[in-house]
């Protein structure tokens, strides 16, 4: 099956440089061989139909009409990570989130890290994610990020690195869970002879994390706040609400009165204790943030400040999502925990620094430039794939607003064989594990592997033609 | 239960029930048309009247014939109550409350939607096969609902929608056909006449149960009595009204007697009116008028349920007066389509 498969020059996760299969892969390769490429293609098409029937779709536009719903393309070849390697990554993720949480508590509190000059004050205060309204506030349990979905990549040598932290409303976890269901249903034979770590406990872990935030009651009412059915992640919102058995609400279903948040039900108003919000800070409360927001709840932040409702993630976490602040996370780990980071950042040039800016401008054709507050693959220049005109345009943007840009070397992301035009092709991947932090921290076994299905593309975002794969944490095969 | 969710559950069921009813009477008419001598009073035009959309049809298809009638009722995008639109709206409402309905319910309504919207092969089948599959798709949705959903408020609000729609459709079918068939006394007792009455019963999904009932022999009076007053047939008006009454009591959750609110008055009076009457008296006082009154009562019932449970007028959010929430209301697809689809005939 793999006779025509040629790994690229970087790091292929199925085959080593000598084109030998990696040891953990052997059982899978033999099951794949037994299945055959034709059958794989047939089941692949059936899997697409299944996802559609399940309604695992997202909308690209907000027409609300009969068109525009698409599934996230699903690739059937799983991505394997050995359990030993995964344990290290888990530790690294827990460490990183702990440091980020301490950082958030600090900058909205005493600001020791700014006073000690580890991070320049202006870099924090100039950030779009900075919410001065929250200074002096202490969220429930003293924790800020209950749910995060970091993006990890392996570089050309196979070294794991953190690409982004995604601390606001990371999406994709529903696909992570559904992909496994589809794999088991459509490709049961690939699981034979080995144990893949199960992932089904995510909804219960998430619910526990959210319930932990309301210590004032024995039976907290938890709701998931969605922007509504036109949001591209609506499927995920309804899926998670269903899996947890909690109400899925829109801003118009909630109201603040008498110092509490209420939901409007057929039997009148009922109190709400915890809100898992899937809308950005800006839209949460028109009385405090954007006054034109139609998605939030007027008066919510007032109730929140008085400690009568919990919101996850805490408003204000977006500051640590700023790609300029990202660059300081290794420093945070050293500063707050006195440890070396277990997972390193991707080397990052800060255009706000004159030396870095000069380097970036001179090397635009080899770097990836990103706007600090954008996500989803938008606002980005991939130097090696860009035209001269695009490069000049970005150079102007950087000079005009250096604070707004960072640059990183173009990584040769690791590859995993994937179905492309009916054949196996080495496609670039990243990994988004999800980290929950209530009373205890919990990391999903594996995560959502996103794959750039367009041949040669390095962009894995669904908005840019990316797809996804199931991710297996497996015991190392006995040698 | 969230008011918005109750609203969606109610409408999912109304739309599915509507689609099922339309599919059944188009299916019956397709079969029946084959029995009609060429040029005879064909069964198509009454379908438009039964669906209460005569003006819209004439605007969309001036002078339209049988093919246009079927097109209008089954697939027309311009008809908010066409089967395809009903299923699309039911599915869109279901999509908005997927967390409340069971996965099996969602898969069924979504599967039906995908079949109608994306499976071109579906429309290559003979028409009666298409309609049968749609009807069975709707019935499967009820079956799955009844087999998987807890009997909590979600089930009751869904049932309420289904029953109100069913009572409304049963009376429309009877109203239109009855007066179409009766004015020609010379045909009474003829072969074609009997066929017409059988087709009426079939359109209402009532033929077999009518035959098994004590009324046995097909006569205009017996058919009207069965569809309106039968105590045990699940599609009769009386049966639907009784269940609506029960359901509202559960939903209202009030067991102590007290001064009845408007909704309680209306449902109680309507139920009494259709429970304690005889078919002879109804006919003597004018069947058409009685049916007209009933349809008006059903519309009022809907309006009262809507105000009491779906919009909560007693509570005013400061946001409700802001321009922002007005703009939000305008993007709500379902709100607009509901208004269109439930406009009284």
What would you note in describing this structure?
The complex is a heterodimer of chains A (479) and B (345). By secondary structure, chain A is α+β, with helices and mostly antiparallel strands. Chain A is built from 14 helices and 24 strands. Chain A has helices spanning 26-35, 37-54, 83-107, 112-115, 121-125, 173-186, 202-211, 234-244, 281-284, 300-305, 323-326, 329-337, 354-362, 388-400; strands at residues 57-59, 69-71, 74-82, 147-149, 151-154, 160-164, 222-225, 247-249, 254-257, 260-265, 268-272, 274-277, 310-312, 344-345, 349-350, 367-371, 380-382, 405-409, 415-420, 423-432, 434-437, 441-443, 448-452, 466-474. With 345 residues, chain B is an all-alpha fold. Chain B is built from 17 helices and no strands. The two termini of chain B are 31 Å apart. Chain A binds chain B through residues 52-55, 64, 66, 224, 229-230, 234, 238-239, 241-242, 246-250, 252-253, 255, 263-269, 286, 292-294, 297-299, and chain B through 1-6, 88, 92, 95-100, 103, 106-107, 110-111, 114, 117, 153, 157, 251, 253, 309-310, 312, 315, 317-319, 322, 324-325, 327-328, 331, 333.
